[in-house]
Design goal:
Strand content: under 5%
Shape: elongated
CATH superfamily of one domain: Alpha-helical ferredoxin
Largest sheet: none
Order of helices and strands: HHHHHHH
CATH class of one domain: Mainly Alpha
Number of helices: 7
Radius of gyration: 27 Å
Helix content: 40-55%
Number of strands: 0
CATH topology of one domain: Fumarate Reductase Iron-sulfur Protein, Chain B, domain 2
Length: 137
Amino acid sequence: MSLKKVKALLALAWQLVCHFVSKLFSSSPGLKEFKLQYKDDFVFPIPAAYRTLWPQFEKCISCRLCDHYCPDVGQHSFGDFQGPSYILSTLSRGLVDYRYLSQNQVDCSGCRTHSCENVCPELVPISSVLNFVKGYI
């Protein structure tokens, strides 16, 4: 081994030792800074009853057939209840921060006919989805 290689290896070893020593004896503001910038990601526990239905919740293909058969669509003022597909399509892509939804946006009056569920090609339990979301508003 040449003298040049030995010097290079010693220099690398010295830098490694200095790095570990500096990490051991210095206080990094990294964690404190992270916590200052961190935003709550609204991950919440899902009850067991809904956890078993979750794979069915995610089956929504956004065909919007449920909106066409929902008697509540068009009965509310603009910006309120937009139909079951609005909630279903967001839920099928992941958890949403439901705290920012208004009650009117998920206000299915419960037509009791569940016509939206009957026309769903993926057999998504739409009323269960809306009840799940209402529980987090």
